[in-house]
Amino acid sequence: MSKKIASARIDTESSQLLKELNNSLPFDKALYKEDIEGSKAHAYMLKEQGIISTDDYYRIHSGLERVLEEIESGKFSLDGDDEDIHMAIERRLTEIVGDAGKRLHTARSRNDQVALDFRLFVLRRGEEISNLVLDLIESLIKVAEKNCSVLLPGMTHLQHAQPINFGYHMMAYASMFRRDYERFIDSKERNNLSPLGCAALAGTPHPIDRRLTAQMLGFKAPTLNCLDTVSDRDFALEILFNIATLMMHISRLSEELILWSTSEFGFIRLSDKHATGSSIMPQKKNPDIPELLRGKTGRAYGNLVSLLTVMKGLPLAYNKDTQEDKEGVFDSVKTAELSLRVLKEMIEEMEVRDEAMERACNSGHLSATDLADYLVKNGGLPFRDAYHIVGNVVNYAEELGKDISQLTPQELKSVDERIDEGACMVLDNRKSMDARDSEGGTSTKRTLEQINMLKRWLQERKAGKERA
Length: 468
Ligand code: ARG
Fold this sequence. Notes:
Helix content is 63%, strand content 4%. By secondary structure, the protein is mainly alpha-helical. Arginine binds at residues 24, 28, 84, 110-111, 114, 318, 320, 322-323.
């Protein structure tokens, strides 16, 4: 019986159950491109260093190209009995080019090979996600710019607090997503180091050149320490954390979209493209899409906690436990990419019901703080005294069934002598919104300032990508 390709000591055919547990090909086949790319760079380096002959190198190189072509055309299907993507590709390569294929694994182990393939995958998909985040920010900015004069009740504790504008609210999300973008970029910067050449755990006696392969594969440099590198999955944890946080932000926005599209709020209407019906209630239009985005956040958290748990007890260096690193990452990446695309489309196509937003500002005494601030500024009262006077004004307005912004100068004065004519002016909701003109505040002027700053930031990022 021929030896198993990666088992010099085991002659017996593995049990079916072992294969089911052990084989990662069913999911790590997603790494075929990275695996072939890594092998090409490795083979080139082996040739440059005189470790394999030029002839063997050319055989390996063209053989790998053929394997790639066969995978992509479906001729070589990746659902065979091979243990993982690395073994599958090496087996097929050796069938095609013979002995040269057997030399490819010189000075390499699957431990550095999988660390390389997975890292390349994570860095690349992280970059794709970061681009989708930029696209989403762009859409949020557009909606913000259109609506930076539309009044909206700003909330704390989900209770009316102070008047803001809808554009400002959108810009709060744009700021969150900017942090997400930066997290993906920071992670890429930190993890942009090549594991290739670490071999099993301690390097290799062959005269390899790790800098050459690092450069060929687009890394900044090789990693520092091989023992760490073959068991390091921080890069995977980082993308999982970045996605979990991104999804948490997506979920918060989704929650607001769901609330706003209820008949109680009526602040937005989701396009019919993004709403579904009920099988029994003919009148229903349900916000399934933001609900799903909110729900999918759960699996993004799960994937993060799952890999953290896998890693927590591992001694150095490689342990097979880390094979459990991939499915969660694949799932989180797919979830994040789809969610970002859907959210962008939904934001762009929702109808903003500015009248409903502005109407909602007429209850909840949103401008009460403005009256207190006015009494401090114009009447020289201590803030706490002003605060209590305004409390009495609010009680009085409630008795009359009015909002504080609807009280007449006489009504105001009847509560407290110290309230003069000018007070009425500050109670107007729009004036109140525009009065919050401090840096980062909600006034239309400040909102536009934020929009312009973020637009500039966005343009710089996009121009940077084009240059790269
Ligand atoms: N399929 C394995 C994984 O994903 C590849 C590395 C196997 N290495 C080993 N020494 N058994 O982790």
